[in-house]
Amino acid sequence: MKKKSTIVAAGIALLAFASGWVWHASGQKNYNSILQDNTSMPLVKTAYTDAAAGVPVDFEKAASSVPSVVHIKTVTKFSQVKGRQQQQQNPFGDDDFFRRFFGDGGAQGYSQPDQKASGSGVIISNDGYIVTNNHVVDGATEISVTLNDRKNYKAKVIGSDPNTDLALIKIEGKDLPVMSIGNSDDVKLGQWVMAIGYPLNLDVTVTQGIVSAKSRNIGINRQGAAPVESFIQTDAAVNPGSSGGALVNLNGDLIGITSAIASPTGSYAGYAYSIPSNLVKKVIGDIMKFGSVQRGYLGVSMAPEDMDDAHKKELGINDDVNGVWIAETDPNGAAAEAGIRKGDAITRINNIPVATAAQLSEQIARMKPGDKIQITVLRNNAEKTFSVTLKGKQGTFASQQQAALQSLGADFATLNKEDAAKLNISGGVVVNNISDGIIADQTNMKPGFIITKVNGISVKTLEEFKDVMSKQSGNLQIEGRYANSRDTYYYGINDFNK
Is residue 463 helix, strand or coil? Predict the structure, then answer.
């Protein structure tokens, strides 16, 4: 299939990281953030003041947000790698997995220089929380932030979400300039916007353009297992280094985080793409509050837009319908439990029209497990509305006990009596094979951890652990130890739902 242009992530040409690190953020204090869950602080409307008749558009007010946009510089340190020939074969350097795949080649070792790169970010709290793209900081071993007033700070990663290409970092500051956040749902086609960032390692730069499309999916995100793309498209010029910068309206309110460009060269050639501010607010708010993103799952497979006529006929797809056609449903998923089925066309979420997969994905991505939503579908030319309670990634299971354990994302076994005696404890539950789930998302627990208490309740066997977990909800604390340590470790889990 021919492509007129290559989609390149803004900054990806400069950034080529292999891995990242996350600092858990649960249980932290009030950060005075614009993204905090506070009903007294509503989203700012994106309506902007129209220019008087015959008067050119004035971007001076939009540019007043410049102090809230920062320059992010990163360093990725590389360990010694084997030989120049292997470097050419293996772009991932000395990673163990890829070394086993490509082989050592018998070459002599040498050191590869550190990799330096840069991007942009937006200050969202007066004490130093900054939102940027995941691809800007992913794998960085050093992160520095330069403010508009030239002050420099060291930064650390608080959390990230590869699925939306967003990350939250923190500097130690106070009374920092915070950008107000707008309501991206109110953004209109043709609306004037300004992009603010640090492209090509230059000082802060502002460019103007209009919104040329909404809910645009360009298939660029390869970072996450379940990517969400619903970009605001604009012709404001951005270049590598603009990643993580701000897209603002004429009032200077944040309506998007710059993430990608469409270009045959890797530099600006017409279109730029920004993550909508309402999605940013949800994702970064979750990271700040819980340490990870709490994402609700609908449990449907959407019919691709390029589906052939035979499959369209099988599903009863009518191209005249503005909706998202369902190709399959997870029998244990939220949609199927509510009564939505294969061949339905979803037309509205909470009465908000959805005509594309990108629009549907964005609406669901703003929700968390347990949220109740109204989904309107077209079935046999008649509209039906279903009340749907979203689930976590693991869906539902046969029993409450099984659901509780499955959602944690690990294997559990009763600690045998001999090992318990050696550790001088009465019993416990060993955690093995940690994979996708709550434990991996919200803690840095390692395999081999021995659980002895849940919310202060002793657990000596797997059955006791199942019973205790089936009765838990909300926030909980898991207590235990590792076999090679005498210390007691505590792991917090937020918003636990069975």
Answer: helix
Cβ contacts of 250 within 8 Å, gap of 6 or more: 48, 49, 57, 58, 59, 61, 62, 192, 193, 194
Contact 172, 109 (CB under 8 A): no
CB atoms within 10 A of CB 428: 26
Q: Which residues pair with 146 in a beta bridge?
A: 71, 152
Residue 115 β-bridge partners:
76
Which of 287, 162, 136 minimizes the C-alpha distance to 224? 162
Amino acid at the residue 269? A
- As a whole number of angstroms, the distance between CA 491 and CA 445 comes to 7
Yes or no: say if 253 and 182 are a contact pair by the CB < 8 Å rule: yes
Instruction: Judge whether 469 and 405 are in contact, CB under 8 Å.
Output: yes
**pLDDT tens digits, 459-483:** 999 888 887 887 777 788 899 999 9
Q: Give me the residue label for tokens 């379940």.
A: 226
Edge-first strand order for the sheet with 69-76 is 152-154, 142-146, 69-76, 115-123, 129-132, 166-170, 156-161
Per-residue pLDDT averaged across 79-108, rounded?
39
DSSP-H helix ranges across 119-242: 134-137
Residue 155 near residue 144, CB atoms below 8 Å: yes
Determine the longest span between alpha carbons in the chain, in angstroms. Answer: 86
Three-state SS at 297: strand
Amino acid code (one letter) for 13: A
The catalytic residue positions are 135, 165, 243
Cα–Cα–Cα angle for 352, 357, 361, rounded to 5 degrees: 70
Phi, psi of 413 (to 5 degrees): -150, 150
pTM value surpassing 0.70: no
Residue 36: closest CA among 161, 123, 124:
124
State mean pLDDT over 337-366.
92
Whole-number Å distance between alpha carbons of 96 and 297: 34
Rounded Cα distance, 18 and 30, in Å: 33
* DSSP of 230-252: -EEEE-S---TT-TT-EEE-TT-
Amino acid identity, position 387? S
E strands present in 217-297: 231-234, 246-248, 254-262, 271-276
Query: 453 and 480 in contact (C-beta within 8 Å)?
Result: yes
Percent of the chain with pLDDT over 90: 47
Counting every residue written for the chain, the total comes to 498
